[in-house]
Design brief:
homooctamer; alpha/beta; five-stranded parallel beta sheet; four-stranded mixed beta sheet; 9 helices; 9 strands; binds adenosine monophosphate; binds magnesium ion
């Protein structure tokens, strides 16, 4: 097959292999999973897994599948390799699919994750009433579309790394996530960095790295 | 002269003529002021007035000039034609020139104005400790560059019209105000509208309209 | 459930709760409506409500539904809490869905609304022959796509706040509403502000705020 | 010399050679003028001619120079080769330099030109009171920055070709003329076409072509 | 009905009414056609008419319909009100639908039209072998996507007005017509102006205006 | 004074106050420094400090000033509060000013910093020969303009968090840092996040946060 | 028919005719193929050929069709007219369709092609272990989406021309290939040039030209 | 010193080291030149060398300096290592500085170069009268700003690789070279590829690579 499966990555990078399912056929994924299983028995993560491909893989592997975030996990096993906590917050309910991609990624990588959804800046009391939770996190993932102010506001309220994930949620001048992306990049709060629009996986992975230090 | 001075606007629009000074020579402005003085004796507003032109006009008229906001006012007279209050808030200190353009415009149009500067969302306590002030305003002007989240946050905290003024303050991905502009246009809080980048005058004028209803 | 229903918003913001239906399942909306009904019996507004979800909700609630604007209202009741009038104008017939979102929002919030549709600037006589109507408004909502000049022209003809709503109507260099958005932001007329592309709801809400002052 | 002087263009295109002065040294222009004079004695047009280069050329040729529009004309001679009239209109006073580039170009090509400056759409009466002038034109050049609505409004009021010239006048979201450019391209009025931002020359040349048919 | 049919436009603009069919229901169009027929018996033009709506209208009116360009004409009658010729040229075969919108518009307005398709600049001999045709035109419409160089090259070869129509044909960095649009706006040849991307109608209408002078 | 100095931030965020010098007068900065010194005696960081303002402050305070990065530090004192190492790498020599902003920020916050400059991806051997250094870092800051591939390549070679800082270095299609910004946001390597263009400070601050966990 | 088939191109350009299938009907293509077969018996290349059109043409001609790259070849015949080798490399597996368009184009034009797929810069060892292959190529085609760094890295490792093909693969800030396009244009390695997003054909054609010198 | 001088590049890439002078101090460049001279005695190329730095280096080395293109060459020596010819063509005279950067680069690398300046597509006869020259080239560099059609037209006329160099020449909608860049990327002629805006060096280097095959 074409895809060069990377057996050494766990060694070099200290984390299990991840399959980016977006443009792979179900047969390609089946092949990659089989190849990976030869050296890694648990928690193989597949992102952007379509419902249809998930059905196919379910018949062949022990697959956990989350419809909302399109996350699949082969041979999912609970394990915690870090003590700290990662908080995943969203501005609205429409941001939850991306947030779940981040949360499930972080969990599969051995982290305790707390979800804090629909706490956008247009209703600050929702965020302020959770200050205690926020202040205990080792890393916070702020998932928001539209004006994307959540990352800045959380960054100002806490002193741990905040990873902003702009989402493509919204319409008109949200321009598929550009508005939120620019907001987050321009954050006036220190400690905020940004990953690609809708890249919940990247944020979960990075938060896990930070939480494992 | 080329410029068609509009003697009927005060009648039609209920407000004195305003001169946009940005691309006019000092002699052109002198001519327009003289023409306007024939029917309107006080509070002629000049925006974007350069220091050099201000010096020239000062020798010919009774000119108030604010270096920071580049606002000039011929025959400035204090007067209050509306009871309510307009709050002008900024995210940072660099937004103050634009804020002053808004505040001085609103004052010259007969409004009480309260300034609330440097209350950006990266330090929420600064805003929250001024909730009483905010809640009494008839209109609030939120002036902010960078991530421009101020308009959303204020919009969520209050129930009066909020006019967002994105500023060109910042660097990199602030793209001369585009980031703040998009943020404000995407505000999740109801009651927020937006004027052009750096358009303090437009915001002050609109706030005055609302405060006079 | 995930969505944090905000029972205090009516108190803080003086307006009934609004549900943004765009990315919610019909079951989620049913839950939110039930929760809201516990403290607010009438005029629950749902924007961006799909025809399919509207059918589902109709079987469970007394739902008014406008196919064109995708507006739903649970327990709709006529009531007028402000004396003044809001005019909603459009440039063309394709802008009417967005205009209706604005008009129905303003009505549900207790305002008298006059519709003035298809009065775009390429045929000025249509606008000029309605000058009397325009001059009596407390707030005007100008809904236009393509070159978006309607907001400027109305702004120049009247002395009340004009809220521009750019629409995504058009093709080619209209770029999904960007052309109209930029036009409106650059308006040379005073008193014009802008909301997001296609955001009829935001314009109706703001106009209501202004009309209630 | 590098520049390939095009002695045949007058024959092929029926118009005298024009020198685009923007990136040429004064010595290069001197050489080109001398070359052109060998076969064309009058009305050599130079656009974007800097004040400094104009001074240099004035000492060597009979040069008309307009400081505002940066137009230079060697051996200027009044002549009219077409009967009709071209109207050049501007939205504001800041658009006049570009308008003069158009007007002087059209005049040098043998056209009667009427200037109608500062008639922007935020004060419609200024345009409407000139309807008679507009209705007699063979071609109208609409020069405007900011929201650029002038082209559409004039296009709707008249039945001759309207050439829109967006200008880079403005600030913020005018984006150096993009806003006006998009407005004009999206004009809902028939008969409107557009040339490059600030391209007064191109508009004057095209209007002359149309007026000579 | 909502649409304000404009019975005076023919008088003011000297051309029959045109219906922009893009966002109108077939019933709306039926109503407008009936209204127009009361004062104008022939050659009612409908642009962007869907196949489905065309079928509906065909049962009620004598409708000519061109599938490719989506042009419909009610009571089509050949008539020539101008002597000159309009040439419509395209760069490739994919540009033909837009070109036909232009050509049919010009014909319905009483012009002789010559089509010159697939003569793009990557094969110059195709254009050069048609120089005689080009040189006799009163106006030339250059329809091209991708690099859009056709307008410039034709502009350089002829001395009549050239109207560039960028098309959304292409992929990748053609960005839905932006590449061709910018090329045409930057044309180094004099006499070239531009209409909106894919706006064959606008180009045909303008060419007719010029041809009727 | 206008600026609201935030005496509580050190407590809340565990880091000394930082002054963003870009748009402050030297007198404003003097005032803020004096205010800060009342509760924090050492290592007051000033970013974007102009040479001229630095000269002024040097006469009043014990100021370290780095011409290249425009970083100033009042009462600089070496101290190490974290054991790990932060690597700051650049693609070229032109990226060094931004890199020094990051490195000096990280040092003032108590971190050991290793500089690895001019190791861009067009000469991979320069990076590969430093693998040992890279593999020992707790956080890596990758500073690069132009194609910005450095962050991805380093991210693929290591298993610690990589913070990408796009720089505005370059010309043409680098578009002031947009090219590098997009590259870094699209990184295929896990663990990479991005801060604003030229935001060395933000990267240094975040790296320090991570290194102190 | 409309399309002007260009029988002289092979003579002028030394290569067989190519049909761009994207916007042609199957009947149009049939006609063009028949016309071409009259003077060129083998290896007629059709790009962007839909599966449906391929089925139609298969019944009429001896057609090779590659589903993945949408390449069709009528009367395919193996032949090698150049000695050197062209390498086609991709960053990921999703880039393979575009790479195959390039590879099959180069093969049909008489070149030896080596495929090196899924060797993106986030796993450098995959590239480095193929250095020998790379160093023997006469031209290398680097096909990559997302951050598009592959072209730069290969350009730095080799001394032959590298042709970058940005792909529209990715999501969010990859913006349909813009990110990769800008990366490649800004390459710091010498010898790199770029073709349009997803233009595998153009890259294969150019590589063949270079390999035949 | 910071810059890592790369003594092995000549070996790996078969070409002398080149110094990108844009952001280096004259002292930095002096150091790099001295380092390079230790292993390479002739033809050290410096691009983007400021007049001031050139003066400094002239006193220390045997420096050829071309004011127009800002190219410097230490120990320039004529030598020809390839038989073929490279043609460098420009659309206008303003493109010459970039063209000279390309031409001088190609010459220093051992190529015969023919210059064909000011042959833009708005006057095709200038190009057509040089067909013989064009048809003999091994590689052609097409340098053009504004509409950038030169690359396509030349690509259609010849059968050798054409390297497009968009220039930032122009105003308005040329957007600093974007218009020309997009034109060239969308070229309908086969064999055209593109380098960065104003990147004459890159084009000259690539042309030399091709000419040496
Ligand atoms: N949703 C995602 N977004 C961005 N990168 C991802 C995503 N999911 C997986 N990846 C990355 O893609 C790599 C796998 O790509 P592949 O080999 O194409 O399956 C993983 O190692 C991750 O670094
Ligand atoms: N069409 C709309 N566009 C923008 N904002 C809206 C729209 N409809 C509702 N909203 C806002 O969304 C809020 C409700 O969001 P949610 O809690 O997600 O249903 C309301 O309070 C409004 O401020
Ligand atoms: N394809 C088109 N593109 C742009 N404008 C058009 C088009 N077709 C018609 N129009 C214009 O739209 C007007 C009719 O619009 P409407 O009243 O909405 O049908 C006509 O008078 C034309 O000026
Ligand atoms: N996928 C492609 N992308 C860009 N250009 C192509 C492609 N396929 C073919 N072409 C070009 O299109 C020409 C044929 O266009 P046509 O005459 O419309 O079929 C060929 O000579 C190629 O130069
Ligand atoms: Mg913080
Ligand atoms: Mg509010
Ligand atoms: Mg008004
Ligand atoms: Mg008209
Ligand atoms: Mg011409
Ligand atoms: Mg890594
Ligand atoms: Mg190389
Ligand atoms: Mg060719």
């Amino acid at each position: 097959g074409y895809a060069k499966v990377d057996h050494h990555r766990e060694v070099r990078q200290g984390a299990p292999e991840v399959i980016y399912g977006a443009s792979k056929t179900k047969e390609q994924m089946e092949g990659i999973i089989n190849s990976l299983l030869s050296h890694c028995k648990e928690n193989i993560l597949i992102t952007r897994l379509s419902t249809e491909s998930a059905a196919y893989l379910s018949e062949r592997f022990d697959l956990f599948y989350d419809e909302l975030s399109k996350i699949g996990i082969v041979n999912r096993t609970e394990h915690y390799s870090a003590d700290g906590t990662i908080v995943v917050a969203t501005g609205g309910t429409s941001d939850i699919p991306v947030a779940e991609e981040a949360a499930l990624t972080a969990e599969v990588l051995g982290n305790h994750v707390i979800r804090l959804y629909d706490v956008g800046v247009a209703g600050l009391h929702r965020l302020l009433s959770n200050m205690e939770l926020l202040s205990k996190a080792n890393a916070i993932i702020a998932v928001a579309g539209m004006e994307g102010a959540l990352a800045s506001v959380i960054g100002g309220l806490t002193d741990c790394p905040v990873i902003g994930v702009p989402t493509s949620v919204g319409y008109g001048a949200s321009f598929g996530g550009i508005s939120a992306l620019l907001s987050m990049l321009n954050s006036c709060a220190s400690g905020v960095s940004v990953v690609n629009i809708d890249n919940g996986f990247g944020a979960g992975y990075l938060a896990s790295m930070i939480n494992h230090q």
